[in-house]
Amino acid sequence: MNLESSSVRNRRKLNELRDMRQNAKHGDFYFAVYTAINQPERNAPVFIVGDDDRGDVVVCSCTKSPPRPPYDIKVQLKLPTSVRTSKLYTISREQLQFKIPQTASVQEYKDIMLQLSKFLHM
User: Fold this and answer.
1) d(CA 34, CA 49)
2) Which residue, of 33, 35, 62, 105, has the greatest Cβ tally within 10 A?
3) Cβ burial, residue 17 (10 Å; 0-12/13-18/19+)
């Protein structure tokens, strides 16, 4: 019986993870595993900027390093974090590990979107 309840718990956790990934949306912070070109695999926060595809999301990388002008925006997650609006990646939703509960403030969000649009020359 203990083995069965463990199996049920594992199945429930997998379903929750699948649902969380499918519900990831623009403006969310997630912890993700991804690889940048010619770089080692990263386990780091990302900020979702595109979520139209059910299989993929477009993200800005995040780092605990201080912001580098002009495109990095400082936000306060669990730790001070820089959103790198010039570092965009398309990753599979399967690479999202968990949602970060902290969110950008209204002003931080506006700053991220402004710098992203400047970077993209929009």
Assistant:
1) 16
2) 62
3) middle
